[in-house]
Amino acid sequence: MPHFEFNGTEDDKRRLLESISRNCSCPPRPFGQAINPGEVCAPHRMLLEKGRVDHLLFERAIKSRLLKEEFGVTPKDTKRR
Ligand SMILES: [Zn+2]
Residue 65 C-alpha to ligand 1 middle, in angstroms? Predict the structure, then answer.
C-alpha cells in the first residue's frame, strides 16, 4: 500500500488493490524477497505517487456526473453484461 495517507474509503482501497493485483506484471519472487526497483510493474509504481492515486480517486468520485452530463448515461448503464 502507499506510504502516504490514502484519501479514499476502505472500499476504494480494496478495489484499487484488487485492480493492481489483476494487472500486476512484477516478476515472481519468494515471499519477503525485495524486488529490483527497475522490475516493478506500472500499476505498483503508481502506488508510490500520491498525486496519481488522488487523481484516480477524484475521477472515480466524479464519474457519475461526467457520464450523465456528457453522454446522458449512468455508470449502471455502462456495466458490461
Ligand atoms: Zn506489480
Answer: 31
Ligand 1 centroid–CA 45 distance in Å is: 8
Residue 50, judged by CB atoms within 10 A of its CB (0-12, 13-18, 19+), counts as: middle
Tell me the domain boundaries of the chain.
10-78
Give me ligand 1 centre to Cα 47, in Å.
10
What is the Å distance from ligand 1's center to 35 Cα?
10
CA distance 13 to 1: 9
Q: Give this prediction's pTM.
A: 0.69
Q: Per residue in 52-78, pLDDT tens?
A: 899 999 998 898 888 889 888 876 776
